[in-house]
C-alpha cells in the first residue's frame, strides 16, 4: 500500500500507526492526542516507552507521515472518516 517506514517508531506502536495512516482505523487515547497535536494530553496518556520516544515520534510524524493525517482533532476525524490512504486513493 505504502512505502512508509514505520520501523523508527516504538515496536508496540508500529501497527497502530500503520492501521491509522493506511486504513483510517482510530488509535488509542495516546495516539489520538498525539496526532491531534495535543502534546500535553499525549504525555499524560503515554506509557514509559512512548514518553521516552516523544521527540522521535514528533520527528517521524513531521517528516514522514502524510500531512493530512495529523495536526488537529478535526484532521484526525477527517482522516478516519476518509478511511486513511486507502480511502483517499480510492476516491
Helix percentage? 55-70%
Strand content: under 5%
What's the mean pLDDT score? 95
Major beta sheet summary:
none
Indicate the structural class.
mainly alpha
N- and C-termini, Cα separation: 15 Å
As a whole number of angstroms, the C-alpha radius of gyration is 12 Å
Q: What's the shape?
A: globular
* SS summary, helix count: 7
Q: What is the number of beta strands?
A: 0
Order of helices and strands: HHHHHHH
What are the segments in which pLDDT stays under 50 over at least 5 consecutive residues? none
Pick out its properties.
mainly alpha, about 90 residues, 7 helices
Detailed description of the structure:
With 91 residues, this protein is mostly helical. It has a domain at 26-86. Helix content is 65%, strand content 0%. The protein contains seven helices and no strands. Helix 2 runs antiparallel to helix 3.
Compact description:
The chain is 65% helix and 0% strand. The chain is an all-alpha fold. It has a domain at 26-86.
Helix-strand layout with pairing:
Elements (H helix, E strand, L loop, with lengths): L10 H13 L5 H7 L3 H7 L2 H5 L1 H11 L8 H10 L1 H6 L2
